[in-house]
Amino acid sequence: MRGWCIRSCALALALLALAAAPAAAVWTEGGNPVSTDIYDQEQHVVVPDGAGGMIVVWAWYENEGGYLKHDLYAQRIDKRGNELWADGGVAVCDYTDEQGYPCAVSDGAGGVIVAWYDLRGGSYTDIYAQRVRADGSVAWTADGVALCTAARNQGYPAIAADGFGGAIVVWQDDRNATGWDVYAQRVRADGSVAWTADGVALCTNTSFQEDIAIVGYGPAGAVAVWEDARPYTETDLYGQHVDSSGAVQWGADGYALVNAANNQYDPVLLPHGYDDYGYFLVWADARSGSQTDIYAGRFSGVNCQWGTPNGLAVCAATGSQYYPEVAPCGQYDLVVWWRDNRGIDEDLYAQRVDWFGNMLWTADGEAICARARNQYTAEAIETAAGEFLFVWADDRNLYADLYAQKVDAAGVPLWDAGGIPFVDDTYTRHSPLLAADGEGGTLVAWIDQRDWQTQGMDIYALRLDGFGVWGYPAPAIAGVDDVPDDQGGRVTLTWAASPLDRFPDETITHYSVWRSLTAPAAMALSGGNPAETPLSAIGPDFAGTAWRTAPIGAAAAAWEWIGNVEAHRFEEYAMSAATLYDSTNANGGVHHFLVAAHAADPFVWWDSEPDSGWSVDNLAPEPPVGLAGEQLHGPEALYVHWNPNAEEDLAGYRVYRGANAEFAPGAGNMIASTPDTAATDDGWTWDAGFWYKVTALDVHGNESPVALLGPGNVTGGETPPAPADFLARNYPNPFNPATTILFGIARPGRVRVGVYDTAGRLVRLLLDERRDAGRHEVAWDGRGDDGRSAASGVYFCRLVAGPFEETRKMVLLR
């Protein structure tokens, strides 16, 4: 559809709807299949990749030679839904026998470190680990390095980064045949183990220790917390700090962090780092004896800072609450959520707790969803300052679908009551896991049974944005390209339309286009007022000036509004956008642009990612005209002159000299580079037979074709002419800020040269003195006798030499 044109009245910018749209978002309704191989994909974990995407690791329950076993695979997905690794994922470990229950953590470089239990040793399970780089290649020994191959079983690993590109892994260990114990091992970034072979003991008490949680403190090591049955009548929560060298710090078998009456279990940890080895600990607690409640504490080392040494009740409502989860909120707070059966079915509740242990939302929690039937396997993440997104499995319609809800800092739901369906289709999906994309949206990966009859359970993924829309609704800049064959100052900005621009959604009303500014320029635009323009103010008919802030990568940037484009349901749009300056050798001239897609609701919009380009002046000036050469005497030289060019971006002229008409102009034969329209060649003689080529040059270095002057076109002779009275035209003319006036007198005498305005008033007396017969010149700097700059306009130069008088017109252009 090239050729359709719309004009923006505000800025008179041409808009083109172009046919071929670039590759943009690839999310599909209902989710993208991450792995749909036959049999089951399960036990998945998700790790952010540090670039707005996520890495999904899962166990594939496959048939290998008639034997059903789990192997481990991983896939990296960017925020637009592109799979960045091999189709179907890369094999983390597909060694003979069983590998399962993976845990994973970022390697800090766009990749992932995975640990799992492994049955390759025979009848017992061991602990192995592997690192997958950002490009999908495995970094360590094929099928992983052994962290522990001690006797009997090791299982249910948990992992934390070690701050050096490696990880600390903890697990349940039955090597002592007295029930599960707790062991740990550190694996370096190169895959070597740092501690004692088969790990260091964090707790070997003869009772059972299980359900381990861990948080890392970089060079300070890690803290692990677990359920501990050492009273033999109930479970308490114990913890251990292990430093980076593998030395335990809180006693041989750990420290009792929570030992209230009855059982405490399901510990979850969140580091806060404001105290030495500081962390939030949240757990399910049956101390009341009749039900299970949710408790939490902020710990500094082994000391609880909230309420009693055994923490504060986050929720003690009627019925039981269990399976707590936790995530950070802002700098100092945390949000806790759990499954709650205070009603008939399981519902989803949450609470925000501040640094001091104050409950900030409704007592006993805010109902995120309390609809009929069950809500379960919920995950949550902070997507903007104080705003939380919850995603959960919901079987209100018999089959479990995925629903979502967003709440503000006060816990008030921002979307439809009970949440909005995120993925709803036949059969069940559950266990959503989240990774923030850095743009207010969230990537979600889950277990999906839509093809269970033929495929089993699969892994699917989808992006949910900050307005509750699936996929990637933002426009995508396709190019910022110089406008060819122009004088610079403009680029063609093209972008793929928001998916919501087209049928059946047709949600987008217009696009606003923004150009980046430096901070001083933004302040100048705002008239010194630092308040930026809210996007809600940029309606379809907006006109005037506006600026805002948005990042370019990790750096903050200011943006100036340069125009709106009405939505017309095109696949792609284009705008001719002005630039502030062109690209030159001295300045790359890079400009950044951003496009926002606006919905009818003024508070709903989607920003593209910024992109950059530059404008180039690629039109050379016209060749000079009126080129002439005149012989000078005393001393002998050639005076070359030409008419001035009219280009506004003219920088000056170059004069080249050669032996024939075919010589190639270059740095070696250039005899003058001048802003004037004349040059003198002191090396000229009649006998040399020189040829001259003159070009015009613009401010961006574009050079014109040549004007040619041959020996036969030079005026004058070998014998100096008799002196004559004359006043030549000044050069250059027009001029700014100075010009040169050439004159001659036939006999010695007093000479007067003056500049006059159109009213005949003397502006500047340039010369009033005795001169010898011959040729002379005098300069005017464009100033009056009072030293002030003369205004633009027409002036007259008048020569008086004895009885001879002559006047010529000059034009000063400021």
Structural features, described:
The chain is mostly beta strands. Helix content is 1%, strand content 49%. Strands 38, 39, 40, 42, 43 and 44 form a 6-stranded antiparallel sheet that branches. A 5-stranded antiparallel sheet has the order 1-2-41-37-36, with no helix packed on it. The radius of gyration is 40 Å and the shape is elongated. Residues 1-24 have low confidence and may be disordered.
Keyword list:
mainly beta, five-stranded antiparallel sheet, 1% helix, elongated
Compile the SSE list and pairings.
Elements: E1 5-8, E2 13-16, E3 32-35, E4 40-48, E5 54-64, E6 67-77, E7 90-93, E8 99-106, E9 112-118, E10 126-132, E11 145-148, E12 154-161, E13 167-173, E14 181-187, E15 200-203, E16 209-216, E17 222-228, E18 236-242, E19 255-258, E20 264-271, E21 278-285, E22 293-300, E23 303-304, E24 312-315, E25 321-329, E26 333-340, E27 347-353, E28 366-369, E29 375-384, E30 387-397, E31 399-407, E32 420-423, E33 429-436, E34 442-448, E35 458-464, E36 476-482, E37 490-496, E38 508-517, H1 519-525, E39 547-552, E40 555-566, E41 572-578, E42 591-599, E43 605-607, E44 611-613, E45 628-632, E46 637-641, E47 650-658, E48 670-674, E49 678-681, E50 691-698, E51 707-709, E52 714-715, E53 726-727, E54 739-745, E55 749-756, E56 762-771, E57 774-780, E58 793-801, E59 804-812
Parallel strand pairs: 45-52
Antiparallel strand pairs: 1-2, 2-41, 3-35, 4-5, 5-6, 6-7, 8-9, 9-10, 10-11, 12-13, 13-14, 14-15, 16-17, 17-18, 18-19, 20-21, 21-22, 22-23, 22-24, 25-26, 26-27, 27-28, 29-30, 30-31, 31-32, 33-34, 34-35, 36-37, 37-41, 38-40, 38-42, 39-40, 42-43, 42-44, 45-46, 46-49, 47-48, 47-50, 50-51, 53-54, ...
